[in-house]
Amino acid sequence: MEISSKENTQFFSNSTILPLDRSSFKSESSASKEKQSRCGGIKIFLGALSFVYFAKALSGSYLKSTITQIERRFDIPSSLVGVIDGSFEIGNLLIIILVSYFGAKLHRPRIIGAGCLIMSAGTFLIAMPQFFMGRYRYERFTSTINSTVSVSPCLQDKNQTPLSALEKSQAKINAGCEKEAGSSMWIYVLLGNLLRGIGETPIQPLGITYIDDYAIEENAALYIGCVQTVAIIGPIFGFLLGSLCAKLYVDIGFVDLDSVTITHKDVQWVGAWWLGYLIAGVISVLAGIPFWFLPKHLPKPQSRKDSSTSSEQSKFITEDNKDQHKSYQQQVTIADMAKGKSREFLSWLLKFLPSLKNLFGNPVYILYLCASIIQFNSLIGMVTYKPKYIEQQYGQTSSKTNFVIGLINIPAVAFGIFSGGLIMKKFRVDVLGAAKLSLGSSFFGYLLLLSLFAMGCENSDVAGLTVSYHGSKRMTDYEQALFSECNSGCTCSKNDWDPICGENGVTYISACLAGCQASNGSGKNTVFFNCSCVGTLASPSQSSSAVVGPCQKGNECPKMFLYFLVISVITSYTLSVGGTPGYILLLRCIKPHLKSFALGIYTLAIRVLAGIPAPMYFGVAIDTTCLKWGSKRCGGRGACRLYDSSALRYVYLGLTLVLGMVSIFFSVAVLWVLRKRSSPQDEILSANGERGACGTKSRTDNFVNSDRLIQTTYWPEKETRL
C-alpha cells in the first residue's frame, strides 16, 4: 500500500507538473511573439520617421537653393526673401506649445501623419503662383525675340518700339496693372512656407519621444542617431534637385523653348523653381502614409516595465494625477482634456516659474545660450545667402552653385558632426574638454573664414556703373553716368536691363545705351553693329560690335572660385566639429530633471532670436550693395540685377565674422566659468582660507551642489550614445 500510495503520489505530482510546463512554454511563446511585435513595430516606426526626416530636410534645403530664383521670378528684394525664409520658423512657433502639450495624450503617429499632409500642402502652395501669374517675361531688345531683320537699337522714333522701357516708365501705375503683373504672388510662397513650418512641428518632439518610450533603453540612442543621419542626407538631395531644376527654363512645358533667347548663364534666367516643390510635396505625402496605420501604443520592453523609470507620457500622467491613471489609458478626446484646465494650468505655472528661475540662474547655461544664439545668427544668415554670394561674386550659375553646395559643403558638415562625436568618445572628453573643443572649433573656423576676404573677384566692367564709358572708374552718381556723349543721340531708358558684351570686354546695360545703330540675327545669336560707345581705349571713337549677354568675369575669377571652394569646405568641417561637444555641454550643465525643459527653451530661443531675424537683416544689408535695380513691368523697383562685388563681399563676410567673434567671446566666458567652478574645494581652502572657501562655496552652491556639472563621477552613466 505504501508503494502504491507513493506511486500514486508520484503520478499525480508528475501529472500536475506537466500543465505547469505547458503554461510556461505558452508564456515564453507569447513573450517571444510580443517581443517580435514590439521590435517589428518600433523598426517600422523608425523607418517611417527616417523617411519623414529626409522629406522635411529635402524641402527645407530646396527652399534655400531657390532663393535667387524666387527673387527674380517675383521681382522682390533680398530683404523680402528673408521674410519668406523666416516664415517657416514663425509657423513652427505658432503651434509648438499645443503640439507639445496635447501631442503626448493623443495618437502620436497619426498627428505626425497629419503634419506630413499639412507640410505637403504648404509645399504645393509654394509652387501654385507659377500656374496663375502668367509666363515669365524678361527684358530683351525687339530684334532678339522674333526677327532676323536688321533693326536699330538706338531709336529716334518712339513708335518703333512696341513695349519700350521709356513707355513703361511713363505709364501710370494702377492696381489693375500691378495685379496683372503678379507682383503680390510672393505672398503665396510665404503662406506655403508658413504651412510647412506648421506641418513640421510635431515630427521631432512626438517622433523622438515615441522612440524613447517604446524602444529598448540601450537602443534608443542608436535609433535617434539613425534618424539624424538620414536627416543629413536630405539637404544633399535638396540642393542637387535645386541644381537640376535651375537648368530647366521656368516655363518649361508651357512655351516653345526654341523661342527663349536667354541661357541659364544669363542674370535674368529663372529656372523651373516650382518643379522641385511639386516633387518635394509628393515625397512628403508618401512619407506620411505609414503613420496612419501605426498603433497609438506599442508593447513596452520588459526592462522598462520592471524599472522605476517610465516613459515621458506615463510619467506625466503619474505625477500629475495618480487617481486618473486609468482614465488616461482609455481613449482621450480633446473635449475631455478641455475640462478643468484652469486648475491644471495654475499648477503647471507654479512648477514652471521655479524651474525657469533655476535654469536662468545657471551661468553656464545662460552664457552658452547667448553664444549659440549669436553663432546661429551668423550661420543661418551665411547659409541662406551663400548661393546668392557665389552667383554674384564669382559669376557662377544657379545650377552649378547648388550642385557645389549639395555635393561638397553638406557632406563636409555631416563629416564634421560625426568627427566631433568620435573625438568625444575616443578621448573620453569631459565637460571642460567639450567646452574647449567647441571654442577651438569656432575660433579656427572663423579664422579660416577671414581668409575669404582675399578670395573675391573684382567688379565686372559695366559702362556707367563700375566704369565710365571712357574706361575710368565710375562716377559717384552712377545713374547720371549711364548717359554719355556716345549715346546722346539715342532714345534710351536707364531702367532697362538687357546687357550686351562689347568687343572691348565691357558690359553695357542695353544695346541702346551702347549706341548700337544696327543688329543682325535673332535670339541668342543676335549681333549688334556700329555701336558708338564700344571701342578700344586707344581709339574711343572707333565703332565696334557687341553680342547678347554680359561679359564674363576676369581671368582670375575661376581660380579664386576654386580657392573659395577649398576654404569653404574646410571651414564648414571645422565649424561642425564643435556641434556635438557643444550639445553635450548643454546637456551636462543642467539638472537631469530639467533637461527637456532646458532643451525646449534653447530651441525656442534659437528659432525666435536667430531663425526668424537673421535672414531678414542679412537681406537688408545685402540690398545696400546693389548697383542696378530692375524695374517691374508696370513700374516700381524689382529685383537687383547687379551688385557691387567688393561691397557684397565685405557686407556678407563681415557680418558673418562680427557675429562669430561675439559668439566666441561668450564661449570664452563659458570656459572661464567652468575653469573657475572646477577648482577643488581643498585647494580653495588652502589658498584663501576658510572664509574664502565659504565665500566660494556660497557662490558655487547653485552650480556644483545643484547642477553637479563638474563632478565626473555623476555623469559616466549618462553619456549620450549616438
TrEMBL record:
The chain crosses the membrane at residues 40-59, 80-104, 110-132, 220-250, 270-294, 365-383, 403-423, 435-455, 560-587, 599-622, 651-674. GO terms for cellular component: basolateral plasma membrane. GO terms for molecular function: bile acid transmembrane transporter activity; sodium-independent organic anion transmembrane transporter activity. Residues 299-324 are annotated as: Disordered. Keywords: Cell membrane, Disulfide bond, Glycoprotein, Ion transport, Lipid transport, Membrane, Transmembrane, Transmembrane helix, Transport. It is a multi-pass membrane protein. InterPro entries: Kazal_dom, Kazal_dom_sf, MFS_dom, MFS_trans_sf, OATP. It holds the Pfam family Kazal_2. Residues 45-678 form the Major facilitator superfamily (MFS) profile domain. It catalyses: L-thyroxine sulfate(out) = L-thyroxine sulfate(in); L-thyroxine(out) = L-thyroxine(in); 3,3',5'-triiodo-L-thyronine(out) = 3,3',5'-triiodo-L-thyronine(in). GO terms for biological process: monoatomic ion transport; sodium-independent organic anion transport. PANTHER family: ORGANIC ANION TRANSPORTER (PTHR11388), SOLUTE CARRIER ORGANIC ANION TRANSPORTER FAMILY MEMBER 1C1 (PTHR11388:SF99). Belongs to the organo anion transporter (TC 2.A.60) family. This is Solute carrier organic anion transporter family member.
